[in-house]
Design a protein that fits this description.
The protein has 279 residues and is of the alpha/beta class. The protein has helices at 11-29, 49-58, 75-81, 128-138, 157-166, 213-222; strands at 2-6, 33-37, 62-64, 85-86, 100-104, 110-117, 147-153, 173-177, 187-188, 194-196, 238-245, 251-259. Helix 1 (11-29) runs parallel beside helix 2 (49-58). Bound molecules: fe (ii) ion (2 copies).
Length: 279
């Protein structure tokens, strides 16, 4: 299966860039499935239903959220009736929406997509490791699903790496979101799970993790309440990863995707030596 996963869309810049590029990216990479994190799509905070609808129309198959899931309250009734939009699995029982989705491709193959949220330097939450353990008791790679991708929304690289190793060999890929900075550690773990600590954001990188520089800087320098943070709206770089799985659901390839804006570009197949094939 050929899977494209994009990191946190930030503001209009991120949204517009992804909506414009996604149909072409899908064709170019011949993707079977696309996952997009959109927790910051609405002016940096949350996701509005009409934005989710536009992302689905542009070619997103599943949208994930994160700690900003409920910043736009209109999403609460929407998520309750849209199974392709998921929030962290380890939110407390009774939280609207689901933390995982199983989608069927046109050819009948099934993919499980889940999101878990880390606890290090984040709000207190149920155990993400146990939540995914429970999910995988009911869903087995090569049995009821042919691929499985988990978005680990977390601050600490250590927690994300530990999380990926915990599920190595049981899911196709573990991809990190939330820090808004892409990492370069794309690899296939010994058990066959593709991993990258953070996909990076789809947003304007002439910013402080997607937000305009002056108010973000003032928060650090002055330690006084100031202007509300707003997303930087210059040209966005689309950031994500491309994953290819074999017939057993293991990753045979995980490579960076970076397109447009300020960051050095990267496209699968154009980075000699970047294809992780360590198994
Ligand atoms: Fe984010
Ligand atoms: Fe986040």
């Amino acid at each position: 299966m050929r899977i494209l996963v994009l990191g946190d869309l930030v503001g209009r810049a991120g949204r517009d860039a992804v909506i414009a590029a996604l149909p072409g990216l899908r064709a170019q990479l011949q993707t079977d499935f696309v996952v997009v994190n959109a927790e910051n799509a609405s002016h940096g905070f949350g996701l509005a239903p009409e934005m989710a609808i536009a992302l689905f129309a542009a070619g997103a198959d599943v949208i994930t959220l994160g700690n900003h899931a409920w910043d736009r309250k209109e999403i609460i009734p929407y998520i309750a009736q849209e199974p392709r939009l998921i929030r962290p699995l380890n939110f407390p029982p009774g939280t609207p929406g689901a933390g995982a989705a199983i989608c069927t491709l046109r050819d009948g193959r099934k993919i499980l997509v889940a999101q878990a949220m880390g606890r290090l330097f984040m709000d207190p939450l149920d155990d993400p490791f146990r939540a995914v353990e429970d999910l995988l008791l009911r869903n087995k790679l090569g049995a009821n699903v042919q691929a499985a991708v988990v978005d680990i929304h977390a601050e600490a690289s250590s927690e994300k790496m530990a999380f990926a190793h915990a599920f190595d060999g049981r899911v196709s890929a573990v991809v990190g979101t939330h820090t808004h900075v892409p990492t370069a550690d794309h690899q296939i773990l010994p058990g066959g799970t593709g991993f990258v600590s953070d996909l990076g954001m789809c947003g304007d990188y002439d910013s402080v993790i997607g937000m305009t520089k002056a108010p973000a800087l003032a928060k650090f320098v002055k330690k006084m309440p100031g202007e509300r943070l707003a997303p930087a709206e210059g040209v966005a770089t689309i950031c994500g990863a491309f994953i290819e799985t074999d017939e057993k659901g293991f990753a045979v390839r995980i490579e960076p995707v970076r397109l447009g804006g300020r960051l050095a570009p990267a496209m699968p197949g154009q980075n000699p030596g970047a294809t992780a094939t360590s198994r």
